[in-house]
Amino acid sequence: MLVAVVVLGLKFVAYLMTGSVALYSDALESIINVAAAVAAVIALRVAARPADAGHPYGHTKAEYFSAVAEGVLVVLAAVSIAREAWPALFSPRAVDAPFAGLAVNLGASVINAVWASVLLRRGRALRSPALLADGRHILSDVVTSVGVLIGVVAARLTGLHVLDPLLALLVALNILYSGWHLVRDSVGGLMDAAVEPQTENRIRTLLSEHGQGALEMHDLRTRHAGRVTFVEFHMVVPGDMTVSAAHAICDRLEDALRAEMPEVNVTIHVEPQEQAKHHGVLVL
């Protein structure tokens, strides 16, 4: 939140120094960074709450609401930028004293780039949708800012002042694209989308490698809920196997999955061989 406020202040100073519509659009997008940071803090606090009677699966999905809210705010920012840029497209004006203002804007972009890398690295390590959404949005902001800087310099050097509002419109389109991806990924989490194919393949491999004693596993289902991955499947065992022996296999499989995915919730349905469906992931 502090970084977002500092970057917002620097970008508005750059806009006031230059009068550039493109820099104004860049500063306007930074307001979204502040709002997104606030939303992320609230979502992370809610997601950190332990499971309770009303929410037996925990509160981790709260992070997706933060990412969806950020996507909506991004769309609103794009609309606001387009409203400012469209009239200026037909009556462009010269950018005043750009280079000092551009230097301020460049400093803000460097801060954003460093912070985006921190958020993305921590988001991947913690498997946090809220941090990843914030990091990706800030990274897109950095790309946008670099494009704006290049364009404003080009407008100043060439005298084509229409480049300034034109770049602002391109910023709006880029923000819309970023917002679409944020909303799409977050809605996928809210809709209990399955894990990525490579992750599911790894789960299947672990079940095969650590399922000695079982005959077959099938009906594998997975989903994400924030940083937690839910894994469910049926395990077929010989009909005369004791409950204790079957339970030992389940424990071994759960330990193998948790060794690679610390935040995993495993549910195993044990069925006797004579009632098995005989399809799915075979245990080797």
Automatic annotation (TrEMBL):
It is a multi-pass membrane protein. Residues 2-191 form the Cation efflux protein transmembrane domain. Coiled coil: none annotated. It is found in: Cell membrane. Gene3D superfamilies: Cation efflux protein transmembrane domain (1.20.1510.10), Cation efflux protein, cytoplasmic domain (3.30.70.1350). Its main location: membrane. GO terms for molecular function: cadmium ion transmembrane transporter activity; ferrous iron transmembrane transporter activity; zinc efflux antiporter activity. GO terms for biological process: intracellular zinc ion homeostasis. The chain crosses the membrane at residues 30-48, 64-82, 102-120, 141-159. The keyword Transport applies. GO terms for cellular component: plasma membrane. InterPro entries: Cation_efflux, Cation_efflux_CTD, Cation_efflux_CTD_sf, Cation_efflux_TM, Cation_efflux_TMD_sf, CDF_Transporter. Belongs to the cation diffusion facilitator (CDF) transporter (TC 2.A.4) family. This is Cation-efflux pump. The lineage of its organism: Bacteria, Thermotogati, Deinococcota, Deinococci, Deinococcales.
